[in-house]
Amino acid sequence: MTRSPEIALVTGASGGVGRAIALELAARGDEVCLMGRRAEALHDVAEAAGDGARVRAYPADLTDDADVAALAAAVTRDAGGVDVLVHAAGIIALGTVGEASSEDLDRQFRTNVRGPYILTQALLPSLRARRGQVVFINSSAGVTGRAGAGQYAVTKHALRALADSLREEVNQDGIRVLSVFLGRTATPMQAAIHQAEGRVYEPERLIRPEDVASIVVSLLRLPRSVEVTDLTLRPMQKPAPQRAAQ
Length: 246
Hints:
This protein has helices at residues 16-27, 39-49, 65-79, 102-130, 150-170, 188-197, 209-220, and strands at residues 7-10, 31-36, 54-59, 84-87, 133-139, 176-182, 230-233. The termini are far apart. 41% of the residues are buried. 45% of the residues lie in helices and 15% in strands.
């Protein structure tokens, strides 16, 4: 049986896991709405998808409520709604609980929790009408906090709570909700984290974004008789003994 193309909105589509998921969805024939803060980066992703791909770029800032509302309205107007909403945008600021600033906490909360909450809320009518699916790209920090990243862990635990609560509310409407808890993944964010920690960045030892994308999109294709609620991925190769970064 031939599957009809779906409409997907991917946040954080300009790089990392979001970019990989957007390209995977486009390669499988879906219409993909790319959301990110930088228009030029979204244009690069659209070009990478190829001439035959159906992609639209929507520059927006998840920390700006007006931008989020405009994004939801534009996607609904242009595409008629969404079948799949992938929350892949996120930021991190390292620091101990005793020293990290409240400004850093607020900035992470607005990007990692409030933005996804408001965007999901705005698109719920469309998701209900289409019996859609929502994917939250989370982190191992959403399961276990660690020293030096407490603020980030707070936001990722909150994102997990959002996904779990949403699932309980919308399953009866036919909406599936998936949380993906990623260990260290070879992304620009992870490269910056390694640098801040004084660790050597070895992307070949980390999860590949393309592998995450392949798994996530395969789960979106599962028959409607089953729902995967939580998926945990971690690098197969464990951290090598660290030497100081040059």
